[in-house]
Automatic annotation (TrEMBL), chain B:
The chain crosses the membrane at residues 12-30, 37-58, 70-92, 99-121, 156-174, 204-227, 239-264, 285-303. Its main location: membrane. One of its GO terms (cellular component) is plasma membrane. This is ABC transporter permease. Pfam families: BPD_transp_2. One of its GO terms (molecular function) is transmembrane transporter activity. It comes from Cohnella xylanilytica. It is a multi-pass membrane protein. The lineage of its organism: Bacteria, Bacillati, Bacillota, Bacilli, Bacillales. InterPro entries: ABC_transp_permease. It is found in: Cell membrane.
UniProtKB/TrEMBL annotation, chain C:
Pfam families: ABC_tran. PROSITE patterns: ABC_TRANSPORTER_1, ABC_TRANSPORTER_2. It comes from Cohnella xylanilytica. PANTHER family: CARBOHYDRATE TRANSPORT ATP-BINDING PROTEIN MG119-RELATED, GUANOSINE IMPORT ATP-BINDING PROTEIN NUPO. It is a peripheral membrane protein. GO terms for cellular component: plasma membrane. Keywords: ATP-binding, Cell membrane, Membrane, Nucleotide-binding, Repeat, Translocase, Transport. The keyword Translocase applies. It is found in: Cell membrane. This is ABC transporter ATP-binding protein. The keyword Magnesium does not apply.
Length: 370, 321, 514
């Protein structure tokens, strides 16, 4: 298959790699300015990630939500939409799974857990579909509607949790029923009680589905055609409105799944929070770094998941505030998004007009706003 | 309690909450009118709030007294501008996707400010409470007017600045050559370019003004409402400002109306706590009101649908003119 | 010949873009008060050259002299300062600004910090009277006609004191009437001492209005001639590089049965509720090319959308081969035999970032031969694409390269290949030769005639009357969403069409119905 290998050709790989290096350098610079030893900080990060079997397990746990939101954002990008709303879809998916997980009693695990999973995924999908509907039927720019929907999702989730399943005297939900759990006990035991669940495995299946759906089916052909050129798709008889709706729905399902595993697999309860967890925004970083290709997204989520989990080690060992990793991640997205800058570094001898480019954002680069 | 007095208090409190939003939203307005979509407002306001807290804290330790918050305000502007330069560099010069750069600014601002706070305050997640913050000024004469005196003329200097800002922005955008050129760059950069107006220059100016105003907006929160800086100081005000800009349909007076309304939604949260029946109202709905309304306006469910400046969001590529 | 110093002299201008030399050592002199036509095919390098003169591009080599002194024109601002003004083909007007705001933009009259609108309005009115360019300074651009917008563009340059005016294909968007007016405006301007460069590929206009003409081919100057000493066929030959026959062998044959029936079609506009099509009726028979003339924006796009199903209609019906398509979806109509060569091939006809092979099945990928059960059979698609590329001589580096990498002519060939091999009953071709060079134009015309001879019904929509004359069996004119009349190709002439295109019904015709 040519496609699988294409991700590894030089031009696709170079920009993200340079961006990662520059991002880490920026982080080192910031640490140096703050009076920290960046070398020991980074090695503390590394040791934290690979230090023990527990840490490896927990790193995988951190990777999982990023993989899902990365797939979510990347899928939408492929369909020409900028899903900045993975954050909200994640929240809604989580909330729906929590409610189903807590409220339903007496179901066998074989029914309860999958049911909660499906409900959560669909809830995320529907939340995404709202933005898709507003875009296709009312011409509302999805970036703006997604931002609004993120906040609405946060407050709606808080409201639902507090009014339906609140644990008395606490700012969190009751625990989900044992039968709704998607944790894997034996694996956790094998990895020193790291919180392991089915998320990473379902995530890998989603990676494959992402590829098959987009490049091996007629449906995917339509979604990509709409993503690249909605006008031409319409003239060719493709239902553009339906496509946008489907794309956002599928994208939302990916994000919703991330939320599902966060509660059914990891925490088993949901907290009433003042701010959403930020996985959706990190998903943008993951998708961009991965060039919106499923394998790239997988690699991107591994990197950012490791960085995020490892930051605790930096804090503990080298006393560096964990925010440094957020700075590194921010810088990496900045450099990927401004790939013109990197290309300038790489080919300093080529002056003049830039050739017509379709860069890392690919299908997502023509985001007409307004 | 006296209803008139309550209403005056509510109006006063509304305007204080609206102040940060007015500055933020006007900032967004200048950026978008020049053609640069700015979802980094939140980050720029965070930067402003942070810098104001730190500068004021150092100034009051250095004995600047009442001048401290003014220095803080200045620092807020500088910090807002720094972040706006990042947006301008990436989205105007490097033609990066503006929405993504906005996300980057939000991530970086949240991280860098907290990183620095932890360094300066030995690992604490928030700054010390400031002593020298803005206090309310009663304007002699005007503050004695019944109702209006209490509602409008006994408030913070930043709110007075906001009063002036709205007509000023309206004048600049719609009556001056600068405003005409700025808007032309946001509507049809090709038209501006071919009459010798530099698209790059005007977009930089628009984005930098955005940074100045958002910086003041963030500083206003620290120096009037919260009195210190933590990760939750700005918490979404930048996004509400963005919503207000859209809800106000990209016009200064419309934006003022929207910020007043959203400011009231915030003031009401504190206000209705005074009443017993408030326990029955889910606060979450007041919180989500600005976003919900903006979404409805965008969808055309409330009034006619709205469109922003025609060229907002697109990098200008002269070879396609 | 002894001459005063030319107002503009270009010496040895060369401009390279990646993979192409757009201008190759071009030299040109513009005399004061002359109308100098710049003639060349699409892509010959005319617009690049003028963009260099206007400061939009920098030349790689060569020098520019304005009034005898060497100048580096590093931007439009500098060009304007030197008295050079450009009327662009695609107007550079801000839609929601007023006429006056557009004209004064960049050099606004002031009073204190404010724009002095009273003075702006007065100045615009004065200029418009002086040059006979009627405009209302206070209305918004989005509310005025295309002809008036062009006058605003001209006023923009005059307001900036332009002495040298460049017109880039100015007649492309105008009605016959407006073209006459523009020619008069050009003469007036020249009489006032302005020097004019007129970029065009229309020989008639050159003969009518210009003093001299420079012919450019493939980035090189072929010749500069005095207009009164040359003729259309000489110019055409120099432009194309070989003799061109203006006549095509249009076989006269008896058309077959009626294939397409459009009955009393009425369509409401999306915003204002005004009709964009009113009671449009016509028929096209098998083996017939039906030409539709009219100025852009008179309902052509809406008509195409109504027939292809892209826009719902208010009333009326569309019948193809006896099947009523009125309520059918775009895709159902396509399977019923409707095919389209869209006007904007890059925007509507192709997905430029898709591979050539993927583009070749854009309208047929649903067929079971390209995969069953919702999956894609890549092998079948590749085979199909290779076949089409070979048969229609699409020049490409392969079927796996992005469509973006093909030239305009080959992109158009790809669309024609895709649509004709679907064997449709009805082919709608909108401006099928726009922006193509002569070779590609001939290819397209041949294929259309071939399709006609195979018995397809063809609706040809074009703004180039010559193309319609050459190709059509019958020609109708659309104006303001109504059919003004219909003529056999033998009985048409410019005058009749011109009258209809500006809103006069053909004498002896009752209504819009044919």
């Amino acid at each position: 298959m040519t496609k699988w290998s294409q991700i590894f050709i030089k031009s696709n790989l170079l920009v993200p790699l340079v961006a990662i290096v520059l991002g880490l350098l920026c982080g080192a610079l910031v640490m140096w300015l703050g009076g920290y030893n960046s070398w020991s900080a980074y090695s503390a990060l590394f040791h934290k990630v690979f230090g023990s079997s527990y840490d490896i397990g927990e790193t995988i746990r951190t990777i999982t939500p990023l993989l899902f939101t990365g797939l979510s954002v990347g899928f939408a990008f492929r369909a020409g939409l900028f899903n900045i709303g993975a954050e909200g879809q994640f929240m809604i998916g989580m909330t729906a799974a929590t409610i189903v997980g807590v409220k339903l009693h007496g179901l066998p695990a074989i029914v309860h857990a999958p049911l909660a999973l499906v409900v959560g995924a669909l809830a995320g999908g529907l939340w995404g579909a709202i933005a898709g509907f507003l875009k296709s039927n009312r011409g509302v720019n999805e970036v703006i509607s997604c931002i609004m929907l993120n906040w609405i999702a946060l407050y709606l989730s808080n409201y639902l949790i507090s009014s339906l399943v609140l644990e008395k005297g606490q700012q969190r939900s009751e625990m989900i029923q044992e039968s709704a759990s998607l944790s894997i006990g034996w694996l956790s035991k094998a990895l020193d009680n790291a919180r392991m669940d089915w998320g990473i495995f379902i995530g890998m299946i989603c990676v494959a589905l992402f590829y098959i759906l987009l490049w091996r089916t007629k449906q995917g052909y339509e979604l990509r055609a709409v993503g690249h050129n909605a006008d031409a798709a319409r003239v060719s008889g493709i239902n553009v409105k339906g496509s946008m709706l489907k794309s956002m729905m599928i994208s939302g399902i990916f994000a919703g799944l991330g939320g599902v595993f966060e509660v059914l697999g990891v925490f088993h309860y949901q907290v009433v929070t003042a701010a959403s967890p930020g996985y959706g925004f990190d998903g943008i970083a993951v998708a961009l770094l991965g060039g919106n290709h499923p394998i790239g997204i997988l690699l991107g989520s591994v990197l950012f998941g490791a960085l995020t989990y490892g930051s605790a080690g930096m804090n503990f060992t080298a006393n560096v505030p964990t925010e440094i990793v957020r700075i590194v991640i921010g810088c990496i997205i900045f450099f990927v998004a401004s790939h013109g800058l990197i290309q300038m570094f790489l080919k300093p001898r080529k002056p003049g007009r830039k050739p017509k480019k379709k860069g890392a954002v690919d299908g997502g680069s023509d985001l007409g706003l307004g | 309690m006296d209803l008139i007095s309550d209403l005056a208090n509510l109006t006063n409190s509304t305007l204080v909450f609206a102040t940060a939003l007015i500055f933020g939203a006007m900032g967004g307005l200048f950026s978008e009118r020049s053609g640069v979509f700015n979802i980094g407002l939140e980050g720029m306001m965070t930067g402003g709030a942070f810098a104001a807290a730190i500068a004021t804290w150092y100034a009051e330790k250095a004995g600047y007294g009442g001048a401290s918050p003014w220095l803080g305000l200045l620092a807020g502007i500088v910090c807002g501008v720094l972040f706006s330069l990042l947006l301008a560099l990436a989205s105007v010069t490097l033609k990066a996707n503006q929405a993504i750069v906005g996300v980057v600014i939000n991530i970086l601002a949240a991280a860098i400010t907290l990183y620095l706070v932890k360094i300066i305050f030995n690992g604490a997640g928030d700054t010390d409470i400031l002593n020298e913050v803005f206090s309310k000024w009663a304007i002699p004469g005007l503050s004695d007017i019944p109702f209006f005196g209490k509602a409008l003329f006994n408030t913070y200097p930043t709110t007075y600045m906001a009063y002036i800002l709205v007509p000023l922005c309206s004048y600049i955008l719609f009556k001056t050559p600068f405003g005409l050129r700025l808007r032309s760059v946001g509507e049809h950069p090709g038209a501006s370019d071919t009459v010798g107006i530099s698209v790059t220059k005007y977009r930089y100016i628009g984005v930098i003004i955005s940074g100045v105003l958002a910086g003041i907006g963030g500083a206003a929160i620290t120096l009037t409402t919260t009195g210190n800086f933590s990760h939750s100081t700005v918490s979404g005000q930048g996004f509400i400002a963005l919503a207000a800009m859209i809800f106000g349909r990209w016009s200064p007076w419309g934006v003022f109306g929207a910020t007043f309304f959203f400011g009231m939604a915030q003031a009401l949260r504190n206000f209705i706590k005074l009443y017993d029946w408030s326990a029955h109202i889910p606060m979450e709905f007041l919180y989500m009101l600005p976003y919900l309304l903006t979404l409805l306006v965008l969808a055309g469910a409330v009034g006619k649908g709205v469109k922003g400046p025609a060229a907002a969001g697109e990098p200008y590529d002269p070879s396609k003119r | 010949m002894e001459q005063a110093v030319p107002v503009v002299e270009l010496r040895g201008i060369t401009k390279r873009f990646p993979g192409i030399v757009a201008n190759d050592n071009i030299s040109l002199q513009l005399r004061k008060g002359e109308i100098h036509a710049l003639l060349g095919e699409n892509g010959a390098g005319k617009s690049t050259l003028m963009s260099i003169l206007f400061g939009l591009y920098q030349p790689d080599e060569g020098e520019i002299y304005v009034n005898g002194s060497r100048e580096i024109i590093d931007g439009p601002g500098k060009a304007i300062k030197l008295g050079i003004g450009m009327v662009h083909q695609h107007f550079k007007l801000v839609q929601n600004f007023t006429v006056a705001e557009n004209i004064v933009l960049g050099i606004e009259p002031r009073r204190g910090f404010s724009i002095n609108y009273r003075q702006a309005h007065r100045k615009v009115s004065e200029l418009s009277e002086q040059y006979g360019l009627k405009v209302d300074p206070k209305v918004q651009i989005q509310d005025i006609t295309v002809g008036m917008q062009q006058r605003v563009e001209i006023l923009k340059t005059l307001y900036r004191g332009a002495e040298i005016l460049i017109f880039d294909e100015p007649t492309a968007v105008l009605t016959v009437q407006e073209i006459h007016e523009l020619m008069q405006i050009l003469r007036n301007l020249a009489a006032e001492g302005k020097s004019i460069i007129l970029i065009t590929h229309k020989l008639k206009e050159i003969m009518e209005v210009s003093d001299r003409v420079t012919v450019i081919r493939r980035g090189r100057v072929i010749d500069t001639l005095t207009t009164s000493e040359t003729n259309e066929s000489e110019l055409a030959e120099k432009m194309v590089g070989r003799r061109v026959s203006f006549q095509l062998d249009k076989e006269k044959r008896e058309p077959g049965p009626t294939l397409l029936q459009v009955n009393h079609l009425t369509l409401r506009g999306s915003d204002k509720g005004r009709n964009v099509l009113t009671d449009v009726s016509f028929e096209i028979r098998a083996g017939e090319i039906y030409g539709l003339a009219g100025v852009d924006g008179n309902g052509q796009h809406e008509l195409v959308d109504a027939i292809t199903g892209l826009r719902p209609i208010e009333s009326g019906s569309v019948v193809l081969g006896g099947v009523d398509l009125t309520r059918k979806s775009v895709r159902d109509r396509m399977s019923a035999g409707v095919a389209q060569i869209p006007e904007d091939r890059q925007k509507q006809g192709l997905v430029l970032d898709f591979k050539v092979s993927e583009n070749m099945v854009l309208t047929t990928y649903k067929d079971s031969r390209f995969g069953r059960g919702g999956f894609i059979d890549e092998k079948a698609i590749n085979e199909h694409a290779s076949k089409l590329v070979g048969e229609f001589d699409v020049r490409t580096a392969g079927i796996h390269v992005p469509m973006r990498s093909l030239s305009g002519g080959n992109q158009q060939k790809a669309i024609i290949a895709r649509e004709l091999t679907r064997d449709p009953q009805l082919l709608i071709a909108v401006q099928p030769t726009r922006g193509l060079d002569i070779g590609a134009i001939e290819f397209v015309h041949e294929r259309l005639l071939q399709a006609k001879n195979e018995g397809k019904a063809i609706l040809l929509i074009s703004y180039e009357l010559d193309e319609l004359y050459k190709m059509s069996d019958r020609i109708a004119v659309i104006f303001d969403g109504q059919i003004m009349g219909e003529l056999d190709s033998e009985e048409v002439d410019d005058e009749k069409l011109g009258l209809m295109m500006s809103g006069n019904r053909l004498k002896g015709e009752g209504g819009g119905a044919a």
